[in-house]
Amino acid sequence: MTYNVAIxxxxxxxxxxxxxxxxxxxxxxxxxxxxxxxxxxxxAQVFPHLRHLDLPVLTTxxxxxxxxxxxVFCALPHATSQKVISGLPRHLRIVDLSADFRLRDPAxxxxxxxxxxSAVEMQKEAVYGLTExxxxxxxQALLVAGTGCNAATGQYALRPLxxxxxxxxxxxxxxxxxxxxxxxxxxxxxxLHAELSEGYHAYAVGGTHRHLGEFDQEFSxxxxxxxxxxxxxxxxxxxxxxxxxxxxxxxVEAIYGALDAAxxxxxxxTVLPKGEAPSTKHIRASNFCHIGxxxxxxxxxxxxxxxxxxxxxxxxxxxxxxxxxxxxLPETEGLMLAPVFP
Amino acid sequence: MTYNVAIxxxxxxxxxxxxxxxxxxxxxxxxxxxxxxxxxxxxAQVFPHLRHLDLPVLTTxxxxxxxxxxxVFCALPHATSQKVISGLPRHLRIVDLSADFRLRDPAxxxxxxxxxxSAVEMQKEAVYGLTExxxxxxxQALLVAGTGCNAATGQYALRPLxxxxxxxxxxxxxxxxxxxxxxxxxxxxxxLHAELSEGYHAYAVGGTHRHLGEFDQEFSxxxxxxxxxxxxxxxxxxxxxxxxxxxxxxxVEAIYGALDAAxxxxxxxTVLPKGEAPSTKHIRASNFCHIGxxxxxxxxxxxxxxxxxxxxxxxxxxxxxxxxxxxxLPETEGLMLAPVFP
Amino acid sequence: MTYNVAIxxxxxxxxxxxxxxxxxxxxxxxxxxxxxxxxxxxxAQVFPHLRHLDLPVLTTxxxxxxxxxxxVFCALPHATSQKVISGLPRHLRIVDLSADFRLRDPAxxxxxxxxxxSAVEMQKEAVYGLTExxxxxxxQALLVAGTGCNAATGQYALRPLxxxxxxxxxxxxxxxxxxxxxxxxxxxxxxLHAELSEGYHAYAVGGTHRHLGEFDQEFSxxxxxxxxxxxxxxxxxxxxxxxxxxxxxxxVEAIYGALDAAxxxxxxxTVLPKGEAPSTKHIRASNFCHIGxxxxxxxxxxxxxxxxxxxxxxxxxxxxxxxxxxxxLPETEGLMLAPVFP
Amino acid sequence: MTYNVAIxxxxxxxxxxxxxxxxxxxxxxxxxxxxxxxxxxxxAQVFPHLRHLDLPVLTTxxxxxxxxxxxVFCALPHATSQKVISGLPRHLRIVDLSADFRLRDPAxxxxxxxxxxSAVEMQKEAVYGLTExxxxxxxQALLVAGTGCNAATGQYALRPLxxxxxxxxxxxxxxxxxxxxxxxxxxxxxxLHAELSEGYHAYAVGGTHRHLGEFDQEFSxxxxxxxxxxxxxxxxxxxxxxxxxxxxxxxVEAIYGALDAAxxxxxxxTVLPKGEAPSTKHIRASNFCHIGxxxxxxxxxxxxxxxxxxxxxxxxxxxxxxxxxxxxLPETEGLMLAPVFP
Lengths: 342, 342, 342, 342
Fold this sequence. Notes:
Four copies of one chain form a homotetramer.
Chain A: E1 3-8, H1 13-22, E2 28-34, H2 43-46, E3 58-59, E4 71-74, H3 80-86, E5 93-96, H4 106-113, H5 120-125, E6 127-128, H6 135-140, E7 143-145, H7 149-164, E8 173-178, H8 193-196, E9 201-202, H9 211-223, E10 230-235, E11 242-249, H10 252-263, E12 269-271, E13 289-295, E14 301-308, H11 312-326
Helix pairs in contact in A: 1-11, 7-9, 7-10
Family (chains A, B, C, D): Belongs to the NAGSA dehydrogenase family. Type 1 subfamily.
Pathway (chains A, B, C, D): Amino-acid biosynthesis; L-arginine biosynthesis; N(2)-acetyl-L-ornithine from L-glutamate: step 3/4
GO biological process, one term (chains A, B, C, D): L-arginine biosynthetic process
């Protein structure tokens, strides 16, 4: 059986990544693509790498028909997303890739995003989209909120450890290295090739990155008490990939055991042999997440290092994984593409 | 039906690319992998990006069994390849990715590769693997010789023009820009990141690149007279991609028409709208080839620009396309993966 | 003796490169910096890599005093430049890095830049800034028009050959590969890291690049007859560097001899041993230009390959070299910085 | 006055960087260059970017005369360095860039480098080359041991804090991101462009990196008690630069104050305004080190982030700074080159 899907905000990188993945998905058909500033253009004009596909022309959201659509991927900017989604037909399954429905507490949303949420009722309904930990709820959901890409990476490293009670909750540091596509196709000086290539630096320092809202919400929920991690992202000169080096305190055997148990049956999350460190190069353009566990020479200190592709497992691949669940399809369908190396 | 395939020389980039592509091919199963210097290792140890796959352990060629194998991909270095292939069971279908069986004239082989061919009889049998132009022969062949990646790119731009008689055969210049994976996983100083990144240069200048042997053979055969092009490759700081800017003399309408007619029905070769130039970014990690045609301001001068991924359409993707034909499978099976962008 | 200089348009890449070079120039002192959109900021805020220098705060041009200023570098966009320069005090020595005063014929300016020139009288006075070929005029000039960076590269390869009459003037092809800083610090989608890195393509194809105006003017003047070359620029994923592969017809000995003779005494232009090809990596961040000469296997065909750094020899280094001449300083002063490798 | 210097091991990256810097140093003249595997070649053959310089031909160390040489830079691999240096004339001033004389305790050397030291007496004499903290000793020294590049970066961030007693000595984490030239011009698979570009990963994990020997020695000496930091280096796809994100516990004002006081008069080390994070892009190819201090949202947690160029301030620039002191020259002579951006 084939399901019809539409993608709102198809002119950005996560939109293009969705199209790339769906292109070889056996059960999904793209019947609508929106991109307000590019309405009237073909996808081949906006993303020439997709020119071999037979795709609908880009339209405005207003001009899009949702008749016969089974599921909508919403790849719009935050704030815009909540407005658009609250106006969609209520029977539609929706996977939102923006930040708008990730935080269950409206006060937290306002704190991190600087303005009140305009669709508070829907915010309550939304299921947090970290598939491996919300599988049942996602299967039943009408609205799934895709996670932040950095937030996903940190959680893959830490959730099983917090759940198992094997680390000190007050001494968690996430030093994260992110590639540039996570910033989107935005015209900003610091995203220019000449500014970024051959250099790297920390950004959103001091605990100001918005994905901390997700860390706080999720880790506190898992722990049953407030957990506030340190989180410093860095921008590195690469296009795809996130590497989170997470510094924790605990027993390395217990830590390795908790991760190994949590992911033993997972198709996309792999715990490497003890002592091995993952590389973003080894999961690029795929839906896989690699996790390494290394004991430091300082007793009781452990590094958990997680690597994933921000556009795939961190965003559009995750969205498709969730869509598969929502539509009753095999969770891995269309997502077993091998990483691209070199 | 599933066919069993083996890959000889699986520890190089073209070997890894074959595994990547076959990983989601519905009708092929990898039953043997050789890598003499890495025998005994798993593919996950040699190429950690393939660790999610259930693959045979690497063996030596000597230890590999070909019972039940339907087709062998041979991704060995030239000179080695001819020795190995001449020792394989004669009923096996073989796609060779090396240079060993590309040149039909043993004298030409010796001229470009510096020593006599040791399997001259097989060399005669081999079919040149540029799929779109040798489709029927390939379907019937036991031994297909994959083309050089640069040679493929130049031929996609030029073969239809030579065949149609629309360009001056004595004034053809191929200025080619190649990414570094074409040089393989070799430990050479000029392939180091620190040496290559942020710089670029011509190499094999003056008409010394071995792929000229293929150009001479093929273009002369198409033209029915000797054709000797100028060919200058450049190494650019990227991992995948070849861009050939081909300077020809002729009428732009005739040139565009000849290319358009030649590729109108081809699933993998696309002629862009007139005046548009392709980018390697738009075909990366895919089996597609994009061709642009642009008239110069100088009357009667035309640029034909072809872009493809050296590891996919230029090598392992081509090999798989040929294997599909040899096995009676749909030619595009497993090869419709969309390019990876950004 | 120290000369006071001002830089107009100091917030762009060529402005920053001027500051970098002047920072260790023994005879120049920067007394004024303009950057209209950044007026009021320090250079450390606009270019943190310059924070160790004691520099004037950025002002608007209107607020800048030219009292005591000996020479002005004007690194403004074209069209803006002519307006600003025509309003400067007439005794000032000016080195303009824009395109505004490169073309002596106002009709040519209008043809290539799309609108009439607004300072035609000054345009006539301006000396073309290709130092090695206009040394005497530059020494006496009040207004020097810096060349296009691509235009400089092509001319270093070709001027001596045209002057010596050793090549066919009707068969000249310049296939040029340019790094991205040549496009400036502009917020354009195609200059983003995610769009450019790992890919490359031709642009301004078909003889539409504006630097052709310079080629036409200069080559025709040298030849004493109209010369119209083919010129196809490509954008490659690097920040600095231009490599021009120039295809000519003539005798390789005569060609090598003409270049060797022309540059034998030049401090910044080096002809490599015959058959060697230059790399942009070997002149990066320096004022040097390397030229290689290679005979093709096709008789009578020769490649002349020139490499320089677009921001240094192609722009700000050239500007400083000209300023040295205009101020009576040694031509090489402050410019002998060695290339940065790796 | 001009001093004569020789460089042993001039065919590696630190050797080439020394030549680059000395090229515009007003008081030093290179009179000898060794490179055993390249003996007989010119530097232009080994490093074409240096071809504009008039340099001695490379010789073996055995063939080099030290008559009239005032100072030797030794850029040889560790283990080799101690053998060569112990055989040099004893009056020579020597700056060693290898690891051989960094660790004062022979047992520590053996622990980290895997074999006994063969020149223990000289090891005791050697002065540790972190200029800002050993200035007086270096001025008097005959043998200065250049620091590890990572070790330098971490120490710039931490020494003043340990000395001032403003941080918890038992909770120090150095998460370091290093560019690839720090690994030298070695033919290793993981240093290939195709392997490194577009990916990044931790290496030498778990407290196994040899520069920990320097951290232990120096931090313990400053603290007057054993200090053992956590240190995890990462390899990022860039050629030059080290960024150390150091996680400490203490009061941000005290921390900022200690750093500010320590470096207020230093010509090469700059503490950025509070809350600003440095970028490797802003110190590239220069001898500057930028340090940022940021308070985390978690009370009492602070990040100190240090950036420098591994080949310059981390190695050859440091060596030259020390040589200046040893020769009685101004410490900054030849080292005020501005960073290269973009």
